[in-house]
Design goal:
The chain is α+β, with helices and mostly antiparallel strands and 298 residues long. A hairpin with a 5-residue loop joins strand 11 and strand 12.
Length: 298
């Protein structure tokens, strides 16, 4: 009996163990398809949510030209950093890319072009380039005349005439209260400085590269004779002879009150003590001569 039982148990074992192994191997196969779709469908979700974000539009900005000095960088790639002066043909040399035309481009458009070319060439996977103008030389206006700092003023954005005058240190005391702007096309504007400073935007136009801004010397008058402070002074708005005498410190005690003369372009006009002599346009200078009480010239 024992041998027969052993035989039956061995037969049962032979059939039982393959059934268990088949159950163990088939179970993962059934559950695998339910997990895989979850991982596959999750992948396209993140790109679809990122792509609709609109890219910022390129600003007009400063237009790069010959003699400008620019610096080109790639984020996280210090070996690419390049600072160079734009050649006369409008090009610069960049690592990997070689000679590149940059004339007429803005820093934003040039940065986008550099990033695109680096990626297309396989140099970087997803490069982010930046361009900075470190020295402005190609776009400027010329400021001349009676300003504190005449010379070239770079135009790296839109500037109004008042801003250029302010960047030049303002008008000197010897300057006239008028600003002359001459455009590249020959157009000439004569602007009142008070309106530039206190008027509306229409009274303060924009400047463009190549414009010339000139502040002429103010008209002056020379006063001498029996006055306390003889000399040359600027003719101010609505100035009269009384104001001119006051500007020179007034007549001396020995001055004859009825002997004042004003000379305009060789025409001498005697003036009494109570007469006014307003400023007349077109006369570059006014001279006042006060004689002494004894009638002699000082």
């Amino acid at each position: 009996m024992t041998s027969a039982k052993r035989f039956l148990l061995s037969v049962l074992a032979v059939f039982a163990f393959p059934a268990l192994s088949i159950a163990q191997t088939t179970a993962p196969v059934v559950s695998a398809p339910t997990v895989a779709p979850a991982t596959v469908t999750a992948v396209p979700v993140s790109p679809s949510s990122a792509t609709p974000a609109p890219a910022p539009s390129a600003d007009e900005g400063y237009i790069i030209g010959p003699e400008d000095v620019i610096e080109v960088n790639v984020l996280g790639q210090p070996e690419f950093r390049t600072q160079a002066r734009v050649e006369s043909d409008g090009s610069i040399a960049l690592p990997f890319l070689g000679k590149q035309q940059v004339n007429g481009q803005t820093p934003l458009t040039l940065a986008a072009a550099v990033s695109s070319r680096l990626k297309a060439g396989g140099y970087y996977t997803n490069p982010v380039a930046t361009v900075t103008v470190t020295s402005f030389a190609s776009r400027y206006v010329i400021v001349l005349g009676e300003v504190a700092q005449p010379g070239l003023q770079p135009v790296n954005r839109s500037y109004r005439v008042s801003e250029i005058i302010a960047r030049s240190g303002g008008i000197k005391p010897s300057g006239a209260p008028v600003v002359v702007v001459r455009r590249v096309n020959g157009q000439e504007l004569k602007l009142d400085f008070k309106k530039l400073a206190m008027g509306s935007e229409a009274d303060d136009p924009f400047v463009f590269p190549g414009d010339k801004i000139f502040v002429p010397e103010a008209e002056t008058f020379f006063i001498y004779g029996q006055v306390n402070a003889p000399g040359t002074f600027v003719i101010q708005e609505d100035m009269t002879v009384r104001k001119a005498l006051a500007r020179a410190g007034g007549p001396c005690a020995s001055a004859a009150s009825d002997r004042r003369r004003v000379a305009r372009k060789r025409a001498v006009q005697p003036l009494g003590a109570g007469k006014h002599c307003p400023r007349q346009s077109g006369h570059a200078s006014v001279r006042c001569d006060c004689s002494g009480a004894d009638g002699r010239r000082a």
